[in-house]
Amino acid sequence: MSIDLKSAVPVGVPVRLAIGPHGEMEGASGRYEKRWGELDGIYRDTAAFDAIVRERGRATVAYHVSEHRYSSQPGALIVGTSTVLPGVVGAEFAMTRGHLHGISDRAELYHCLSGHGVMLLDSVDGQSVAIELRPGQAVNVPGDWVHRSVNVGTEPFVTLFCYNADAGQDYGIIADAGGMKTLVVGSGSGWEQVPNPDHRGYASGRAR
Fold it and tell me: What pairs with residue 58 in β-bridges?
């Protein structure tokens, strides 16, 4: 089989990335930060959240992401690091907003580089799983699973991630459902997964 190079989609330029255990990424093409003032509504205990915001300030970073992408075409990959800083809001541990991919059948890999965390996952048909991650451990998140990173330790929880560049993110699906199906909360010196009484279920047929 021959390939018509004239009609082929231009390819990205290979780039060597240097990725450190604390999330530093040499060769990144972008970075974004989520600040405490931007996280209204993701924690159940609104009074505890408001107290954290007053104490730390709305502009204080709660988590940040560095990434490398060379294209948004199907087949291209986005590689990056996610760093969730430690903390507790009420009973819940510090976490990301979480998302389902905009093209919902797109999968994603998360590999823990440092820290101690949990990947909290809900399938759109009602399953809920919490997978604990320590350095060297990974989770392969299938398509059609809502997922968020939770830091259950005292140090930054850092993961390396990789997913299809055309996947996109749907952040509103969690808010529309009243939060994820379960919560990750403190239990003695560790953590546990408990039901979220506010969860209403996910809208069917979304983001296909």
Answer: none
